[in-house]
Every structure is written in structure tokens, then in C-alpha cells.
Design brief:
The chain has about 120 residues and is mainly α. It has a domain at about 1-55: Multidrug-efflux Transporter Regulator, Chain: A, Domain 2, CATH 1.10.1660.10. The chain has helices at about 5-10, 15-20, 40-55, 60-70, 80-115; strands at about 30, 35. Strand 1 and strand 2 form a beta hairpin. The chain is elongated. The model has no long low-confidence stretch (mean pLDDT about 90).
Length: about 120
């Protein structure tokens, strides 16, 4: 299928599909005229990529993870390298720290609003 149909089927924009290709996350086939040709397995991979991006993983980690997902080696606990798990944990820890900081900022704004409104909520 061409890029427009692939975008419709996958739920991502044609621009995102091109970006995934530029990042080395997908490799669509090419027609004789040079147009991209997306097969079902590429669309399935796009859905996995989209899910991983929505979970907050950076493209760099997704690029490392995709080959293990594709060949089925990323399904067992011992199949995922410790280095990769450590990177995901560190990313998660940085995310948790950002969430905590945002929570503190939100609490400070709530306190300010309460005070500015004369103690009412």
C-alpha cells in the first residue's frame, strides 16, 4: 500500500511514517516508480513503534528494542540485555523525577491560588 493508505490504516501521519523511516525504525519497500510500498508487517511494526513512543520511550531506545521484538527474542526476562533494561530504568527514573517536580510546581500554584482567592478553593 502507498503512504497515504498506510497512514490511514496505521493511524499515524505520512510525515510520521517518513520520520520513522529516516530514524531507521522501518524500511518500506519501493515500487518501480520509487514510491514507498508498505506491507502489513511494516504497518504492524508502525503500531508497535507508536505504542512505544506513547509510553514515553525515546527513539534511541526503541531502535535498540525493535530487533528483539521482531525476532521474538525480547519476550523472556533473560532475553533482554541488562544494559538495555538499565537504560530503560534510568529513563523511567528521570521521568519520575520530572513528574515529582511538576507535582511540586502544581502544589505551589494551588497554594498561590488559594491564597490569592482569600483561602477559598
Amino acid at each position: 500500500m502507498k503512504i497515504g493508505e498506510a497512514a490511514r490504516v496505521s493511524g499515524v501521519s505520512a510525515r510520521s511514517l517518513r520520520h520513522y523511516e529516516d530514524e531507521g525504525l522501518i524500511v518500506p519497500g519501493r515500487c518501480d516508480n520509487g514510491f514507498r510500498d508498505y506491507c502489513r508487517s511494516t504497518i504492524d511494526r508502525v503500531l508497535v513503534i507508536r505504542s512505544l513512543l506513547e509510553s514515553g520511550l525515546p527513539v534511541r531506545l526503541i531502535r535498540d528494542l525493535l530487533p528483539r521484538i521482531a525476532d521474538g527474542s525480547g519476550t523472556g526476562d533473560d532475553a533482554v540485555p541488562a544494559r538495555f533494561l538499565q537504560e530503560v530504568q534510568e529513563y523511567r527514573d528521570r521521568l519520575a523525577a520530572r513528574i515529582a517536580a511538576l507535582g511540586e510546581q502544581q502544589a505551589a500554584l494551588d497554594a498561590y491560588l488559594r491564597q490569592a482567592r482569600g483561602g477559598e478553593r
